[in-house]
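Working notes for the structural subgroup meeting. M.R. asked for a predicted model of this chain before we commit to crystallization trials. I am recording the input and output together here so anyone reviewing the notebook later can reproduce the run.

Input as submitted:
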Amino acid sequence: MDVLDVSRWQFGITTVYHFIFVPLTIGLAPLIAAMQTAWVVTGNTGWYRLTRFFGKLFLINFAMGVATGIVQEFQFGMNWSEYSRFVGDIFGAPLAFEGLIAFFFESTFIGLWIFGWSRLPRLVHLACIWIVAIAVNASAYFIIAANSFMQHPVGARFNPETGRAELMDFGALLTNNTAIWAFLHAVAGSLLTAGAFVAGVSAWLMVRSHKRPEEADEARTMYRPATIAGSLVAFAAVVGLFFTGDTQGKLMFVQQPMKMASAESLCHTETYPDFSFLTVGTHNNCDSVTHVIEVPYVLPFLAEGKFSGVTLQGVKDLQKSYQEKFGPGDYRPNLFVTYWAFRAMIGLMLVPVAFALLALWLTRRGRIPDQRWFGWFALATIPTPFLANSSGWVFTEMGRQPWVVVPNPTGDQMVRLVVQEGVSDHAAGTVLFSLAVFTLLYGVLAVIWFWLMRRYVVEGPLEHDSEPAPPAPPESDDVAPLSFAY
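Returned structure, recorded in token form:
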């Protein structure tokens, strides 16, 4: 492999690994804030204990996300310096806002939330976790705004004197329609992940409680309500994913038609094409693709919201038009990855939907299910939204290849960049060595993360979490220090 191949592998591996933690952090923060709010408003200690329990799991995941996320920004200057030179003025602006505003808020107030249980007034302490929940979502928005410029560049123009793209309208960058709908879609996916996580863990503990008589009260006061709440959040998130994904798809058919044609293995331009449910073949050779199962009406609706009279361009015709417009080159993404990543995203999403509906049925009318298979199903459900989110990002990023910055059909056509133009001039061995180190390090972190999460899930809510933290002491000269609550 040359330096381009290794650099792409490194960024892909480290990004997908980092993104394992991101959806749970984004989605779990507001759920924990809601749990703590329920305790403060109702005085129900069950919600207090759930806040402490899932708060601990949130902190483990948050720490891993921060540790693995730092690597991403360094790669822009190291492995992709030509990309940074070309669009650094634009791409760096929202990332700077993410670091200086969103991350500072979330890191500061998460510290106050961790250490202030017995020191801060309850309403002030509650405000801290809500600020964290808002900040992690703001952080996601700034990052998605930067990524969406690569998907649909707006607010910029090409300067022929410097050979660089320049930011002309920061407001247009932040209000990019691609960014808005990608953010809403990512938030819905994160809430699905967090809802399935809360419901899955709580359902497993609820089933386990039948073998532990001392946990019978906890099953009724904590695990059952958390299972129901998590299932409702997951179900609502899927509805949000449907609407935001539908809007995103319609945007992509206009902004990146090659990506969507590849996602359907639509090799030739067709009027009223069927949705491809299953194909066989190499996929990177259109002539070898055979459509085995197709569904009518779906693809025209996905593209334009119509059920007939829709003509969509195929991969071969788009390739020809791109060559005429942008010069010689292969403008097709990896068709196999694009096609199956799109279907993996949708298929994996259906698992937590099925679990949520089943959990709501089994817990109806005060029931506390004891079926062992339900407990195993709960555990098996937990990783599926993580994998669905990762599949969605693989589809989003791989589908726009070979572009790093996809040309805007209605914007400055010179604001564009392909991968071979953005990579640094390193020796392939240098990048390969760092890839090996990162892979080994991330493998160790993965083991630690899984061990910690499993350990504290199996332990369940701890005994010292059974009573709410005392209110903050009155002002005095002898101020109680902040204490680590975990």
